[in-house]
Amino acid sequence: LRDQKGKLHPTQRIKVENNLGNNWRVRLAVPVDLQPFEIFRLDASFSEGKKAPAAFPDPTENRLKIKTKNLSIRINPKTGLVDSITTKGGRKSLVKKGAFQPIIFNDLDHSWTSGDPSQMTTSFAWADAPRWKKVDARFKLASKVEAQELSPLPIDKWGDEKGNHALPVRIIEDGDIRIVVEVMFVLEHSAIIRHYIIGKKDDLFEIRDRVLMNHKDKMLKVEIPLAFKPDKSISEALYSAVEREPTKDYTEHPNQRWVAVTGEGNCITTVNTGSFAHNITGKSLCLNVMRTPAYSSFGMPNGNLWTDKRFAPRHDQGEHEVRYQFMFSKRFSERQASEAAQVLNTAPYFQIYYPQPGVKGKSPLMKNSPLNISSNTVQIVAVKKAEKANSLIVRLLEVGGKTQSFNLSLTGKRSANLEINPYELKTLKISKTKGKLSVSVCNAVEGF
Predict the structure, then answer these.
(1) Which of 50, 175, 274, 357 has most Cβ atoms within 10 angstroms of its Cβ?
(2) Phi–psi pair at 364, nearest 5 degrees
(3) What is the DSSP track for 11-42?
């Protein structure tokens, strides 16, 4: 793949989204750097390269000690869990053995309140319930038989049946850009197929879980046992962040797209695609994944004609996909956490394009954002047309915790110098007056 300047971009072949065993479709992973609103074109061509391996290496203990530019990650082939993560120059792992294990808590049959039913003194709860004191069950690595049941041999595949079954732990990608380890976990009648995606050059550490959830009245979390003493969690709230101290039990804390835990000069930051709560104890960080009460359930006593002795549809049943990315550092950076969360949750669109042969001239591709902020701790969180004026509404958020003086430019030709307070949410009304940029501050409802 080459860009429009002729620069060759490294690629790695990965599995297509279908299951056809031929080359009718080819799918590639390619790292690119995109500016806001940028349209970036890559032209594909074919050439003789090195022959693809006949098979990826077996997931031995040595093969699952994976090093990137700044991380060393060790996955245990006997458990499928992460036993250590160390940063460059670090001597101690940031996590304890058995990290990122899916765990289950017994939960209330209540759509709006979660908690430990064994501690309930009544059969009814409003908005609060007892917190969990212990984990009730843990997912374990699937056996070979369980893995085969999760992904049985297709009936039209002939040959060595034993060699074609799914296995509990496998390396399913390995190239210059990234390595992907697939692990299968089971607990009774539920299962999780996990992909550890590790970037060899960009320090990406991502977990993608395909959850096959069949448990009822349960809370599913991912547990990260910490190898340092945490002093607080920091998590995203609406246009802000909240700090919380560790608790003795598994107390629920709401969050949005990112959560970080700090302590003893260490920081683990995770961004997600749909986890809205966590808990932080003196020993671990647990990320909520999903819970399974009866749909829209609230105060269903025995003896109810319309709810007794019949099937009740449940929340979060069946197949779901969730994603988490993790960053490891000495200090917490809200700017980096917020940017990583935005990138994960607003993936760029891509389109396969076949240009007509013989067309000359450069493509009119946008290279830069029409709206730019000079400070890297001031974020553009919303852009819209004014409700009752021919103006542009721009909302900005400061995430560095300091007063910032910055420049706002529109189309690179008109600019304004502005100031924003720490963590301020500032709404600007931008108008064009006699060819000049006119910027005024207004409230969130545009002065109505």
Answers:
(1) 175
(2) -80, 70
(3) -EEE--SS--SSSSS-EEE------TT-----
CA torsion, ordered 144, 148, 149, 151, to nearest 10 deg = 140
Note whether 162 and 153 are within 8 A (CB): no
Return the SS3 of 422: coil
Residue-wise DSSP of 70-84? SEEEEE-TTTSSEEE
For residue 418, what are its two tokens? 């502005």
Identify the bridge partners of residue 436 per DSSP, sorted by sequence position.
433
CB atoms within 10 A of CB 283: 15
Q: Name which of 232, 225, 284, 242 is nearest 262 in CA terms.
A: 232
Reference 337, options 259, 240, 278; nearest CA is 259
**What is the C-alpha separation between 446 and 448, in angstroms, rounded?**
6
Q: Helix-strand-coil percent breakdown of the chain, rounded to 5?
A: 5, 40, 55
Instruction: Tell me whether residue 373 is exposed, middle or buried, using C-beta atoms within 10 angstroms of its C-beta: 0 to 12, 13 to 18, 19 or more.
Output: buried
* Range list of H helices, 93-155: 144-150
What are the strands of the beta sheet with 425-433, ordered from one edge?
A: 378-385, 392-398, 425-433, 436-442
Strand partners, 198: 179, 205
Tokens of 395: 């909302």
Checking if the pLDDT of 364 tops 60, the result is no
C-alpha angle 405/408/414, rounded to 5°? 135
**Tens of pLDDT, residues 213-266:** 999 999 999 999 999 999 999 999 988 899 999 999 999 999 999 999 999 999
Q: Which amino acid is at 313?
A: P
139 or 371, which is more confident: 139
Of the candidates 331, 332, 290, 265, the residue with the CA atom closest to the CA atom of residue 92? 265
Closest C-alpha among 288, 345, 286, 293 to residue 316: 293
Tell me the torsion sign for CA atoms 219, 222, 226, 231.
negative
